[in-house]
Amino acid sequence: MFTKVESFKREWTGQPVTRYVSSITGMSVVLVDFPGPIINAYLAVATEVHNDSGTPHTLEHLCFMGSKQFPYKGLLDQLANKIYGTTNAWTDTDQTVYTLAKAGDAQFAKFMAVYLDHVINPTLRDSSHLTEVYHVTPKAREAGVVFSEMQAHAHSADSLMENVTQKMCFPESSAYRSETGGMLDPLRVLTNESIRAFHKSMYAPDNMVLVIAGQIDETALFRELEKFENECFPGTHRPFRPFVDTEPDIEIPKSQTVTVEFPDEDEEFGKVQVSWVGPDHDDGLANTALDVLGAYLTESGAALLQKELVDIPDPLAVSVMFYTRDYLRVSFSLELESVPTKRLAEVSEKMLSLIKGHTVDLTRVQDCLENTKLTLLKRAEENSEFLCTTVIEHFLYGRGSLEDDFKIKDHLETLATWNSAQWTETMVSLFASNSITVLGKPSAKLAASIPKDAKQHKKELAQKFGKEGLERQQRLLDEAEKEQSRPIPLEIIDEFKISDPGITFLKSQTERYGRWAGDEEALSIHYEKFDSHFVNIDICLGAQNIDEELLPLIHLIYGSEIFNFPVRGLTADEVMTGLNHDTIQYYAYASYKGFNEVVQVHVEAESSKYEIVVQWMQKCLLETVWDIDRIQVCIDKALNQLAETKRDAEARLVSAKQRYLFKNSLVHAENLVSYEQWLRSIDTKGVVAQLEQLKKQWLKKDIFVSVTGKIKGDDVSAPWKQFFAALEDTPSKLALPRSYDHLSGLGATLNAESVLVPMSSTKTAHLNLMRHLDMTYTSPDRIALLVACEYFQCVEGPFWTGLRGKGYVYGTSLGPFIESKRLQFEIYRSSNVYTALCEARSIVTSTTTLDDTLFVGAKRSVINNYANSRASNAAAASSKVVDVEIKYRSEWTCVDDMPNFVDQFVKDVEAVTEEEVKHAIEKYVVPLFQGASGTAVFCALNIGEVSALKEKLEKDGYNVEVEEIDEGESGSDDGSETDDDDDEESGESEDESDGDSDDHTSSDDE
Hints:
Blueprint: E1 2-9, E2 16-22, E3 28-33, E4 38-46, H1 55-62, H2 75-82, E5 85-91, E6 95-103, H3 108-120, H4 126-132, E7 135-136, E8 142-143, H5 145-153, H6 157-169, H7 184-189, H8 192-202, E9 208-214, H9 218-232, E10 256-263, E11 269-280, H10 284-298, H11 304-310, E12 319-325, E13 329-340, H12 344-356, H13 362-382, H14 384-397, H15 402-406, H16 409-415, H17 420-431, E14 436-443, H18 444-484, H19 490-494, E15 509-513, E16 524-529, E17 534-542, H20 551-558, H21 572-582, E18 585-589, E19 598-606, H22 610-622, H23 628-645, H24 649-661, H25 666-669, H26 672-681, H27 687-698, E20 704-709, H28 721-725, H29 745-749, E21 753-759, E22 765-772, H30 782-793, H31 798-804, E23 809-817, E24 822-830, H32 833-845, H33 852-868, H34 873-887, H35 901-911, H36 914-928, E25 935-942, H37 946-955, E26 959-962
Helix pairs in contact: 1-8, 2-33, 3-9, 4-18, 10-13, 10-16, 11-12, 23-26, 30-33, 30-36, 31-32, 33-35
């Protein structure tokens, strides 16, 4: 029986939040009423461990391998796909959280009971431990899904530094010291018995909270939960509350500095991380003040540390970040990236000295306070995960009511009354207390030792097991896979029938202005109106008419720095201060929704400040004063950033594709080789004239603007009249450039070519296999191809079971990239990449029939991904702009004739037949995997693995080029200036999550 113990409405948004507790088991359930097509469920368990074995993380993986009531590997995820959902999980230092994101309410309650059984009553078979956690292959290679995942992080600077930070900040008796993901040596010897014992000690129902955000049938949910309680819940209770009852008093006894080496050929730039232990979790006022001060010190060019360490001649860092770890006492850090290695200690000391000697500027800190409030409100509008995180943190550490943890408004009002002295005193008390400083120092010697050590370790494994032992490993693995491949009874799957998924998509009202509405004398504006406190503005600038030699300037200035320059009548400081006062967020990015020949200039603000924001955008784009000293700072920062970029395997892979697959384009100009050569040869004296030339070529009357949200007043276009008048005239029609118009010879043919990118900083490989794809968003085969790709790549699909399940890879993806005319298969974090590639070929080429359950699940997974990309009003409106103005522009003539793209997409996916999908597999997918002819391979991998892979690919018929790399200098033949969020190919294809990504992002599976 679940009893309501608390109910209230969320501040500002009025969203109802209700907390229930079971009188039988003590399990908590919290419901958050959140509008949208997606229901998000989070089942959180407080997990405390005092070692680096990775027990919480391995248990998280094993819970998906079957339950006592449903002892079938893959059942949970096949059911999730069938009900338009997807599961996932994460393990952090103090929690393991199991998630479900599901479109519509149909069968939600019934599925949650099955999910609970997997978490509370997992089978935890030895065979699952062997395949999912760790094993040795017959070729003496180490594998296992968890092991491969952690192997990818083992030598990264971030992982090494964070591990040392945790161990120095917390005493021996504290579980916060633990690497809950698992260190490699402890993972090698972790036993299944230890995992079972941990589950028994931690996975009690009163040590769990189920948080659900969305619109659900509450009666059905509690009916299923109570039925499950009566039949399946174990009668166990936690003897203590993790961390709250066990954690010692946490104090850093004295400030310490330690140097941590990480592998990298380039020893020029390192990292600095300074960490403190701060306020108690329940001290809401102190934690809110901490967040505001963190923003005050680091966010925007007006911030103290940004001004003094980053935006200076000869920068001491490329970026400075502030973040917290929300424990029983909140731990927080300042992190500096790309710091000159010889000055690591000096820079860390200077940062602390700056803070201790600073008097807080009351005007600026009040702007940060207001921005914090508005950011919280915007998150509450748009993101249910933000609300659910608050609930989980309260469950872990809260001593009062849940409502108390949501009462941020009172704290903000109190802080608004503070004077400069109070803010300064608080800042000093937090940031001048004892701290742990970790200096991350790159080491070429360590980088050189890793492949040698790996080779020696493999040799020792072969000697340890011997021929017979390795053959026995194969037999054990075969037996484990056989045990896990027990067929799932169809009657279980058939119990979860859905005739109507009940998905309610969010809607907005469309208005169009300027050339889109037949008015040649006004700016082209697309406005998607929905109820909100905020407005989002994107100015979209196509690069199709820019001289090739000017394109790198876009990445240097408009890709990130444009808001940091003075404008006519205002200094740079005044610009940044004004923007911080009038906006919530602002940035420029060299890609728009995955359309990578378009630059996005983005601003978010309160609805009431719409006109003011338009004025700011005009000033920053049209009235820029090109300060030569600031341009030099931009160049120095960009050069210093290269070392950090080159340590990222995914970014290096992206850069290689940018370099080889494109030409004469914004995308190609971003590849590390070309971009660095340009940075080192730039003539700063002539750059001002080039920037003015760029403005004339670029800022013309054929740009377009996207406005989503709600504005104050009714006339969207009026504030833009002055802006439009200042633009250069152009006779050209409004059209955005496309990446497929800039393909190189290789990019257009993709025939039997391969590029390998050697790296010293990664243990695992990232590989892309690609083939030319002649397809548009309206092609008849597009929907069938989407479903075909999802069939192979979905959770518990053929790639999941055949590649991840055997420990070859951590993940794969398959999908069309229409903007770059490619079908692409991606392998990421692979410990045995060629074997994984061969296995994928075998899977695809041997697929002659489709499994009925997987086929239905694949269609519904496509729809669920699509709904997830439109989960909030802001996301739905933004996607609609892309649909209307880019993807399907030729399909209609006026707003009244505009089809409902969302409904049509869902109908088309539901209607696709098995025969159509089989045809798409035969026509598109199979040729991708049939051999070198008509395909290309790009791979970033450890330098010690390159020669072996090169030899194998050459035998397959590929012409293999290995990038010549001198990582010891910032001029190597690799890398990219691309964010992880939006890199060349994030592993998703592009179609229904907007654009493409050879340069930055997304995928045809959303």
